[in-house]
Write a structure and sequence with these properties.
By secondary structure, the chain is α+β, with helices and mostly antiparallel strands. It contains 2 helices and 5 strands. It is elongated, with a radius of gyration of 23 Å. The termini are far apart.
């Protein structure tokens, strides 16, 4: 079984994988796997990996927006902007 985990964003067989994604068996060529591991792109998956091929890591739900927007700090004019406005 040659299941790997992506350590950096990569692409195998027209599928994009982000850091932490499981790369299923057969996507990484056996002759290239060792070199990709040495480069730090992928690593062999450890333990029982029972993740479907189409599964993606869960993303955190966006925080609910507060009723009051955060105040925006005033922007200082640069010397060139001051000179142009005079």
């Amino acid at each position: 079984m040659s299941v790997y985990m992506a350590l950096k964003p990569c692409k195998f067989g027209c599928d994009n994988y982000l850091r932490g994604d499981i790369i299923p068996d057969g996507k990484v060529l056996a002759g290239k796997a060792e070199a990709l591991c040495k480069m730090g792109l992928i690593a062999p998956a450890i333990g029982d990996v029972s993740v479907p091929v189409s599964a993606k890591p869960e993303t955190a739900e966006p925080e609910a927006e507060s009723a009051e927007p955060e105040p925006i700090a005033p922007v200082k004019k640069s010397r060139t902007q001051k000179a142009k406005s005079e």
